[in-house]
Amino acid sequence: TDVENYLTKYLGKSQNYRIQTYYNAVANLAKFHIGFGAGVMNQKRYTLDFQDNGTTAGTFDLNDNLFLEEQDLKQTLASFGFDLLDGQLLLGATVKKFTYDRKTAQDSFANVITSSNVQLSTSGPSYSGSGYDIGMIWRLESFSTLRGQWSVVANNVGGISLTSAGSPSLNVPTSFDVGLAINPKLPLGPVHMIVTVEEEDVTNAIKVHDAATGNDHPRSTKQRLHAGLELGLFETSTGNNVLNLRVGNNRGSPTAGFELN
């Protein structure tokens, strides 16, 4: 009964989940003022939909359908950076490769219950492509007491094209992100603080597709804004902190987290 009530409650609705993992490695050659990095980011998005197409509208029965979608985006990255003017100016570039796949499965609950598993099958084209980003960080002398810095990043310089055999390509335009961070000295001994704010795609070059109307439209400022506060405790000899506590706002949604080193 509990299961039937749950399925009836969410009948005709979609549930969306996202899992993201990121692995990276960096090497800083301080004597030569250069650094290298490499990383892999995997992002999976899942949609679970209980489709109300059974014999009784609005009430779960075994003729209703279960629809499952998995979207898989993978990025492989390699970076290089260096500093000038005694570390006041930092410049860097990242080369990246994309792959994107979409898989779906759909069947009636009657078949799902009697089946040992549900097989996802590739639906639509699988895309791949590559591009690069360039960026800079400028440490502001006027913000010296706050240890302030601002940054500019150009994403997908020159635009990139994601291709798939037999399908139209997906074109991603160049976009620009601008950020500001301050790291003031606190009279609290082992406590360190960082405050950041960033606006992505300041020119609104990337549009969002509205499936309901079929139109593309720009995102609001709220949907492109990031802000965060980090408190670090017990600085180590490498410049990290043993414990970092974080709160923030990501595109209008609250965030929180911690890091142990």
Strand content: over 45%
Radius of gyration from CA coordinates: 23 Å
Gross geometry: globular
Cα(first) to Cα(last) distance is 47 Å
- Report the count of strand segments: 16
Order of helices and strands: HEEEEHEEEEEEEEEHEEE
Largest sheet: 12 strands, antiparallel
Number of helical segments? 3
Structural class: mainly beta
Helix content: under 10%
Chain-averaged pLDDT? 86
Low-confidence stretches: none
What does this molecule look like?
It is globular, with a radius of gyration of 23 Å. With 261 residues, the protein is mostly beta strands. It starts with a helix and ends with a strand. A hairpin with a 2-residue loop joins strand 8 (160-164) and strand 9 (167-172). The strands form 3 sheets. Strands 1, 2, 3, 4, 5, 6, 7, 10, 11, 14, 15 and 16 form a 12-stranded antiparallel β-sheet that branches. Strands 8-9 form a two-stranded antiparallel sheet. A two-stranded antiparallel ribbon has the order 12-13. It is built from 3 helices and 16 strands. The model has no long low-confidence stretch (mean pLDDT 86). The chain has helices at 2-9, 109-114, 221-224, and strands at 14-29, 34-51, 65-84, 89-108, 121-122, 127-139, 149-155, 160-164, 167-172, 175-182, 191-199, 207-210, 215-218, 225-235, 241-250, 253-260. The longest helix has 8 residues, at 2-9.
